[in-house]
């Protein structure tokens, strides 16, 4: 299975103080996604609105960011990736953004809510 994860949506699905250190929250999510990918064998890409500082690296998942930081920047990057894919129907997009969900659904992807996916990661 292939996943594209709206990183800040998943992070923001829990009011756990993530806003005090966004970069640490990004690193925690990458750790959860690496474990998920290792357990399932799924292909996982997480997209952030900006580059994490310090940069995060993984040999298990792809860590991506929008080319230009800003509001909804990750949404546009995710939509671009899904729409450019030869097999969009094989992609599961994790987001809670209605606009993005509608756009990638129209392209053929399956959408899962960020909160439900995070519950799956933490199970």
Task: Explain what the structure shows.
The chain contains five helices and five strands; from the N terminus they run βααββαβαβα. The protein is α/β, with parallel strands linked by helices and 123 residues long. The protein has a five-stranded parallel beta sheet, with helices on both faces. It has a single domain (2-122), classed as Rossmann fold. The two termini are 19 Å apart. It has helices spanning 7-11, 22-40, 73-84, 98-107, 114-122; strands spanning 2-6, 43-48, 62-65, 91-94, 110-112.
Keywords, separated by commas or semicolons:
about 120 residues, alpha/beta, Rossmann fold, 5 helices, globular
Compose a concise summary of this entry.
This protein has 123 residues and is of the alpha/beta class. Helices cover 45% and strands 18% of the residues. Strands 3-2-1-4-5 form a 5-stranded parallel beta sheet, sandwiched between helices.
């Amino acid at each position: 299975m292939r996943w594209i994860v709206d990183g800040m949506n998943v992070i923001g699905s829990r009011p756990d103080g993530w806003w005090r250190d966004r970069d640490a929250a990004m690193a925690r999510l990458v750790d959860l996604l690496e474990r998920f990918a290792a357990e399932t064998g799924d292909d996982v890409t997480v997209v952030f609105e900006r580059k994490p500082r310090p940069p995060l690296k993984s040999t298990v998942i792809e860590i991506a960011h929008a080319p230009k930081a800003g509001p909804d920047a990750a949404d546009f990057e995710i939509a671009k990736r899904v729409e450019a894919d030869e097999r969009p129907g094989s992609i599961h997009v994790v987001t809670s953004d209605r606009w993005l969900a509608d756009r990638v659904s129209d392209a053929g992807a399956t959408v899962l809510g960020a909160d439900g996916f995070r519950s799956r990661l933490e199970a």
